[in-house]
Amino acid sequence: MKVELSAITKRFGPVTANEDVSLRIRPGQVLGLLGENGAGKSTLMNVLCGLHAPDAGEILIDGRPVRFRGPGDAIAAGIGMVHQHFMLVPVFTVAENVVLGVEPVGRLDRLDLPRARAEVRRIGQEYGLAVDPDARIETLPVGIQQRVEIIKVLFRSAQVLILDEPTAVLTPQEVEEFFRIVRSLRDAGKALVFITHKLHEIRAIADHIAVLRRGRIVGEADPGDADPATLAEMMVGRPVRFEVDKAPARPAAPILEVEGLRVLREGGAQALQGIDLTLRSGEILGIAGVQGNGQSALVEALTGLAPVAAGSVRFDGQDITHASVRARHRMGIAHIPEDRQKSGMIAKFTVAENMVLDSYYGAEYGRGPAIRWPDVERAAARMALDFDVRTPSVHQPAGHLSGGNQQKLVVARELSRDTRLVIAAQPTRGLDVGSIEYIHKRLVAARDEGDGVLIVSSELDEILGLSDRVLVMFQGRIVAAFDAGDGPIDRNAVGLAMAGAGIGDAA
Question: ABC transporter domain: which residues (predicted)?
């Protein structure tokens, strides 16, 4: 099935999200749709899958114009989309989620669950998407939940699969497995659109690349011929530096001291097993490790979100082991959480409200119980401009922003105030190369202004590029330490420590 988008234009009030966009999507091919945050990638694909009606242009399937009145029409035509934020019911099983809305029925119009389970198994075997049909979604890791989303689309006989930022929440190991699945779907004759801003991934998986900038197609390329620098410049309209530009650190006195830190999971198991670390003012300390080895528990304990079972946390010489989140915030501790939607913002609140979510009660914005909204709106507009948060208005609900712009909103709020310590978990998750470059500059600037900066990231290149020192976590412990002041950090040695092999005593 051949699909063509012809001169598609989509507007939301005064904002033009897509303008005169034309694309061809062919069976047996992965089309990489590359663009920076807010470029209009997801909007364009939402038009194709029937969520939005175009204001101009048309969609053609096998040369014939079609008009979708909603997602159901697109699904019936063979077009399915796996959204960046999964649309699964956590308490339902895999099989129940897959058939939701198109339930197979048996005698007396009762749900035929055995048939649903059988279909899940058949699709899994055919495309290498093995998953237990009876497993509850809430018990599954993110990578397996993504398989369920793909099975949902295939169950509805989709011939065109749109994958919106599909690797945004996957570990490097899960990305490799996901690429294997994408290739198997392509080899089976499916047409795939792979939406991303990650240059190395699109060059590894796409058969053809189209670049979208400010709602328009600005170029197309063959992955084998296009180098990262050229693609990055096409994306953002200017040359981009991939290396982190920073002078040697000038660390001063300790700002954060952690001794014997233990944190328990639900059920009593230890998430952290006696963590010791010191972070000095004027340095960036990177925490490396495969996701799930206690990094999240460490960040939550340091920011007051998780109770400490044993040990101590000292900030600037003061014991804050059991201090509240607000108390830590007032001391000058900034927190960029790893899950922006769960912990970093409130989707239904406006951009302006989210920009002051942790400081609305201060004298800057309020007097007594009253908030001075004009002051809030001016501050929010300034922060949005400084951090390139692309929104038509600060009155726009934050949930309407692209994922990357939501992340920039959180970073803007945390780094725009007077801080002493920055704790950043996955600070560039979901960001394009231009935004990553900018956030890295801001983190280095915070270090150079005397802040202590602690970075937790699943991107090893980010850890090695930013950090002055690196600690590796494995199974709730710090198992290795590396200092960039001793020379370039050995990537292979860090990788071995992350896997739990060749570990020694941490310094």
Answer: 3-239, 256-500
